[in-house]
Design goal:
about 190 residues; elongated; alpha+beta; four-stranded antiparallel sheet; single chain
């Protein structure tokens, strides 16, 4: 991913999106925002698992489309401290490079972590799930039992194959089932019977 942006506009949008993310969380990924850029636009996404936000980023020029997870505290400091009018932001997945006319900031990968940033997968950020999966959860979770001591009734069963997913939930009285197409990523071990 490689973009050139107007620092003030990105700072404004970044601060707005960061207001949703928690400052402390047992899930470190929530303390980051995802920036996804396509050929003609950029979108900042963040969540605290109760509230999510998606903002169309103004004032960017996309050179190479892609996505990156930006650590909120570190990236916000860069945007505030830089005096450059325009910044170039690029990422190859392992590092984030922010350059201006008078400044340059790097986040390098060291032993599986990124110094000053967390080495997190871009697809790990909540809110980036496919629309069908969100719909599957929405259409089955109402039938779960959250008051019983029978823990098996308090969740949604997911059955997955290489090209199909099925979600089933019940509380003993209601039964909900949703199924549809899916795409397997990587290899999964086969369950033995």
């Amino acid at each position: 991913m490689k973009i050139t942006c107007e620092r003030e506009k990105l700072l404004h949008d970044f601060q707005t999106a960061a207001s949703v993310a928690p400052t402390r969380s047992p899930k470190p990924i929530l303390q980051n925002l995802k920036l996804e850029v396509q050929s003609d636009k950029g979108i900042l996404m963040g969540t605290d698992l109760e509230v999510g936000i998606r903002i169309d980023v103004a004032g960017i020029c996309v050179e190479t489309p892609g996505s990156v997870v930006l650590p909120i505290q570190r990236f916000l400091s860069i945007l505030r401290e830089s005096s450059d009018e325009k910044l170039a932001v690029e990422s190859d997945g392992g590092k984030i490079l922010v350059r201006g006319q008078r400044s340059q900031f790097n986040c390098h990968r060291r032993t599986g972590r990124v110094s000053g940033c967390r080495g997190l997968r871009r697809d790990a950020l909540p809110g980036t799930l496919g629309p069908f999966f969100r719909e599957l959860v929405r259409r089955t979770i109402f039938a779960t039992d959250n008051e019983s001591s029978r823990y098996a009734l308090g969740g949604v069963l997911l059955e997955m194959t290489a090209d199909h997913i099925t979600g089933v939930a019940t509380d003993g009285r209601r039964l909900a089932r949703q199924e549809g197409p899916a795409q397997s990523v990587g290899t999964q071990p086969k369950a033995s019977k």
